[in-house]
Design a protein that fits this description.
4 copies of one chain form a homotetramer. By secondary structure, the first copy, chain A, is of the alpha/beta class. Chain A has 8 helices and 9 strands. The first copy, chain A, is globular, with a radius of gyration of 18 Å. Chains in contact: A-B, A-C, A-D, B-C, B-D, C-D.
Chain lengths: ~240, ~240, ~240, ~240
């Protein structure tokens, strides 16, 4: 399994001290380090906005089974060409995990056909992540609830299409709720959105969060060869009728 | 529209003073009085466990478009024959609203094929009922969130099948979340489960709760003639092939 | 209710004799004439690709409750600006019916985040449209199946997201099946895709098809004021915690 | 993985020559032999109606990861006690595959809360089984469509709840369609219904059908320890509030 962890890497590149105190190797570095021991059969690389073509060239994507996406303040700096390239690879079967403020990324909005807007408030309040679907591989081995001591609040209404599967719902101390783990299929690709994780709190260092991400990667990995969904067979008249 | 509000009426019949302080005319009486002004075209009757055949004779059900069901401590006293009768009418198109602790009623378990078990705790804590589906007729005109000052907590995991539609999710002050408004179809019938409402708190006197129930009744009301779903057409061989 | 029937109107404008033999007033004219008697409370207007801004100005869309969309060979000629405008109105609550080869329209692909590719073959074969969801208002009063004597075949795999509701599935004489009636929600808007209807066959003159379209319009019509889903409330810290 | 293939075994026990010509070792024998080479890590046993407790004792079920169920003319002879036992094991996490005319079995109706009625006609017509969900593990490696030369027709309306996942839809030469592969979750258990397979036709000898069943078994196998879903935690007041 070949995994690419993408991060806009802007807080880090700007030298934000709070962010760097939690993530000295970048959020991408922390995510990669967190899931690596749980996915021993995986090759994990990272890529960032600052790389040529944001590190997401055709070659890189063609060699990626699952892409993880973290972005926050630089969504607009991601080139439309790269977004379209990722979109096509998802349609063809590449798995995609969209993380936290990545809900507002171009690629997530493009795949959902929705704004993905939500309520938010950053007061470092407690988030409890409750499992809704106890039969799903992504929720396997995850404590119910996950307790995140301090977090940014994301709340409903979350403007997303009805998910294919609702895996987690969060409670925030301030009173809100949020569909914090949802899945979608687009083309031959599987998509998992998971909201816990913020640059100001050390969420990606929690073992339970790392386990969810590793489970998500395994779930999203393609199980058949990648192919262009539009390259369809046009049956000739009477072929089936004659059989 | 013809509505029947069913209540086991046991707390009331036993003279429970707390319950009677909130519901001197019974929970069924309060629900009926609450929705009546919102459903001016409706005939509303009530029925209770203590009535002959629990007040749910074949004639009553045949003349009921939507049945509301409230039960708590006497689920086992409901006769299997009456449960089966209600089941058949739902299959044939009668609407059903299952309320609060009715999640453990025989009829709800029978329709879902699930235990409908859940977490619970009764400490009179605040419940916030958030709207998830903003396009649904049941959520129309409902404040987001509904604030219920004191309530029994119902929490996930709620052991129900994946709902056809997820309308509301509640936050409880103690930290839990709950899918408090969900819909299902069974046969030709529509089912709406709504959890707010308890015998110890005056929830059914809140205008927003009454509006949700009235919206639910309108949504669940059948739009086509009631009929036996098993009385199917068996097409003769070649009928379609020849057409 | 204010309805706008949009048609690219290219077959007609090019003087295609077969198309004009079925639809002398254009496909838009036939659709509008077909649903008008079934929607007596509606104002129905039409718009085409050739109109300034394709007839879909901000003023027209702001005064449209439900938009019907028919396109086939000129999807690429629809300006991105108009597509974006329609997209925003759907998010804000406008209903949308996408018809037949409109599956490949920019607006449908944009709303679904999918290619909407499918199998097809045009041999004028029989299509039978079977009702799957018998409780839905769109299927009310519709014969099961609808028999369309001669049609273009559309077949699975249909590359769309899992529908919110699956209403119709078609059988084609050549052996294929197709999810011919599906619904989605995006933002506050409701979307209904219905595949029967082609420029080479007089499908839109069938009474059952007209009834499905009229039912679809009633279902998709907004039930609350149109508003920008991104104009959200950002709750202040402690507001709910303090209540 | 421990698999139990259950068959009522009545056609066979009665010496039905047509059935025995296809299935000299019984339908259960043919299914077990068909999936065994595809599930090399599995222990496969069979059980029939005629065995004590129908071969489905508490010990057998406790040692079964996935149960396959085939029944046709003897549904009423299955004891309610055994049905309840199977029901409880599914809730606790045992996987279940329901096959063909098993749609009318007590256990399927009990789990769905539906009649599971359908159209049918037995004229030995061609069935084409089309894949709808191309991302699902059950459809992996399956030709699209599967061609079954002669089959009993099962048609819509199929009176089932909205499936969690729609995997296959069939076309019949006579003109009908049918949701021939659907999944559900109940409690911690996964359920897969697959309609191809009949006692009068050698369907279970087709390699593609065997592959679907093997894929279904792998998908339905539990991924966590079996446990009673009603044995829930009742959180004490203030526990979460205090954390």
């Amino acid at each position: 399994m070949r995994i690419t962890v993408w991060n806009e890497n802007v807080h880090e590149a700007q030298g934000d001290e709070l962010v760097l105190s939690h993530y000295p190797d970048g959020i991408h570095g922390a995510i990669a380090a967190g899931i690596a021991p749980l996915l021993e059969d995986a090759e994990i690389r990272t890529a960032t906005l600052q790389d040529p073509e944001h590190g997401l060239t055709e070659d890189v994507l063609a060699a990626t089974d699952v892409l993880l996406w973290w972005g926050h303040i630089a969504h607009e700096q991601v080139s439309d060409e790269v977004v379209e390239r990722v979109f096509q690879h998802v349609q063809a079967g590449m798995g995609l995990l969209v993380l936290h403020s990545g809900h507002y990324s171009k690629i997530f909005q493009r795949l959902l056909g929705s704004t993905a807007s939500l309520l938010w408030r950053n007061e470092g309040e407690r988030e409890l992540v409750w499992t809704i679907d106890r039969t799903h591989p992504i929720t396997q081995g995850i404590p119910d609830p996950i307790v995140i001591p301090r977090q940014e609040m994301y709340g409903e209404p979350f403007d997303i299409p009805t998910p294919d599967e609702l895996l987690f719902v969060s409670n925030f101390a301030g009173g809100e709720v949020f569909r914090s783990g949802v899945t979608y299929r687009r083309g031959l690709g599987r998509i998992f959105y998971f909201s816990p994780g913020d640059q100001e709190y050390p969420v990606y260092h929690q073992a339970e969060i790392q386990q969810v991400l590793a489970n998500g990667v395994r779930w999203a990995a393609p199980t058949r060869p990648r192919r262009n969904v539009t390259a369809i067979h046009k049956p000739e008249a009477g072929w089936f009728a004659a059989s």
